[in-house]
Specification:
By secondary structure, the protein is mainly α. It has helices spanning 2-37, 41-44, 47-54, 62-66, 70-77, 80-83, 94-102, 115-126; strands spanning 85-88, 108-111. Helix content is 65%, strand content 6%. Helix 7 (94-102) links the parallel strand 1 (85-88) and strand 2 (108-111). It is elongated, with a radius of gyration of 28 Å. 6% of the residues are buried.
């Protein structure tokens, strides 16, 4: 009877260990799946490929792309072809807000703003660009 009890305890212990192992494997698998879902592929790609991708992103959604992560923001701001020609029609535009960072990339600038804001744009263009 004692040996049957002992085997029964061993069997329950073995089953409990198997349950714990299965649960911990499941937790690890779920964490790995979560990590896979949050990988920022832009950080892992070579700059040339990233810039090729950026060429196809619509400019009207630039604010979304800049807010994805610091890596995206930095790569977008440093992508000079994206900023070589800009048009500023509003002081709320992304281009206007990014002026301190993108001035070194601007080759053609079209501004339709009130005179006071045009003076601000000129001042921003004359200052040294900020670094990200």
């Amino acid at each position: 009877m004692t040996s049957t009890l002992s085997r029964s305890k061993k069997a329950r212990k073995t089953l409990a260990e198997q349950d714990i192992n299965a649960l911990s494997t499941s937790v690890v698998r779920n964490k790995e799946e979560r990590d896979i879902k949050t990988i920022d592929f832009i950080v892992r790609l070579p700059v040339e490929i990233v810039y090729s991708i950026f060429q196809y992103l619509p400019r009207m959604h630039i604010q979304r792309y800049i807010n994805v992560s610091e890596a995206w923001r930095s790569k977008i701001i440093n992508f000079s072809p994206y900023w070589s020609t800009i048009r500023i029609h509003s002081p709320n535009s992304v281009e206007f807000c990014l002026m301190p960072y993108i001035t070194s990339h601007i080759r053609n600038l079209y501004v339709t703003l009130p005179p006071l804001l045009i003076e601000k744009v000129i001042k921003l263009l004359s200052e040294k660009p900020l670094l990200i």
